[in-house]
Design brief:
The chain is 18% helix and 33% strand. It is of the alpha+beta class. It has two domains: 13-116 and 257-294, Hedgehog/Intein (Hint) domain (Endonuclease - Pi-scei, Chain A, domain 1), CATH 2.170.16; 129-231, no CATH class. The strands form four sheets. Strands 1, 4, 5, 6, 7, 8, 9 and 13 form an eight-stranded antiparallel sheet that branches. β4 and β5 form a beta hairpin.
């Protein structure tokens, strides 16, 4: 199935814990309610009109950007382009026009869509009074550094930001959140936030971030992609290991976008178990962003 408009969403959906980009931030699909605005394939915000649940068979989709894969119902449509078949080692040529492909039909020729632009800038929450006149680049750099730290170490970076960070980004560990306004900041501020997060991290590991919060890491992958650096997100279930890891490449310069999207290949689809899934009906566009993938 490759169509030019998305099919009706019900009852296709995702299991609990799948992260949805909404105006109030990246949140688990089971917490989305009618009236929440989500980001659609038309790269605009549209309200959810209905939420539904069902218990059904699932599949697990693996792709270049989501190394561990994600679960969905077999007939859920994904926004895709298709790579041509290579003949006699010839050039790959152009991708097909954008369309929609069911999860069960995805192959390694399909390219899944991650948006690189998120519309008009959303307002950045007011800073604490002592920082009202501060340079936003410095503030966002400090915020990025503090997110990887905790307790006294975080407070020592910029004490005035402690309560502001807790309000807008949540608490350390699995409680970290990712606000939607971060994705719509000017590029200079997005870079400052990312540089603070990476360069001021323990052991100063370049191009790699580990964290317990899936919501934060899905948002961070979108941020990294928006700056032209494809990121691969994976998780670990090993005892004692931090749950989520994002790695990306910066050498060789930034990657150009294509129609405002990063198109990354699907790799394989596996059969999954029957489980409860949550589906969203969205006004006008019928689509949304799930775990950073347009569907």
């Amino acid at each position: 199935m490759d169509n030019q408009s998305p099919p009706a969403p019900a009852p296709e959906g995702f299991p609990a814990g799948t992260m949805i980009l909404t105006l109030r931030g990246i949140v688990p699909i089971e917490t989305v309610t009618p009236g929440d605005e989500v980001f659609t394939h038309e790269r605009r915000w549209r309200p959810v009109t209905e939420t539904m649940t069902a218990t059904t068979e699932t599949v697990r989709v693996h792709c270049a950007s989501y190394i561990s894969g994600f679960a969905t119902t077999a007939d859920h449509p994904f926004h895709t382009r298709t790579a041509p078949v290579l003949l006699d080692g010839g050039p790959a040529g152009d991708l097909s026009a954008a369309g929609w492909t069911r999860a069960r039909d995805l192959t390694d020729r399909h390219r899944l869509a991650t948006p690189l632009h998120f519309g008009e800038p959303l307002p950045i929450p007011d800073l604490p009074a002592p920082l009202a006149d501060a340079d936003l680049v410095d503030v966002l750099h400090a915020a990025g550094a503090m997110i990887r730290l905790k307790g006294a170490a975080a407070a020592a970076v910029r004490p005035e930001l402690v309560d502001w960070l807790a309000e807008h980004f949540g608490q350390y560990g699995a409680g970290r959140r990712f606000p939607a306004w971060v994705l719509t900041m000017p590029e200079t501020l997005r870079i400052a936030f990312l540089v603070g997060l990476v360069n001021d991290a323990p052991r100063r590991q370049q191009n790699q971030v580990r964290m317990h919060s899936k919501a934060f890491m899905v948002g961070l992958r979108l941020l990294v992609c928006s700056l032209g650096f494809p990121g691969g997100l994976s998780n670990s279930s090993k005892p004692g290991k931090i749950g989520w890891q994002l790695c990306w490449r910066s050498e060789g310069g930034r990657r150009p976008d294509f129609d405002g999207y990063r198109w990354l290949p699907a790799t394989r689809v596996e059969r999954g178990p029957a489980t409860e899934v949550f589906a969203l009906s969205v006004a006008e566009d019928g689509s949304y962003l799930a775990d950073g993938i347009t569907c």
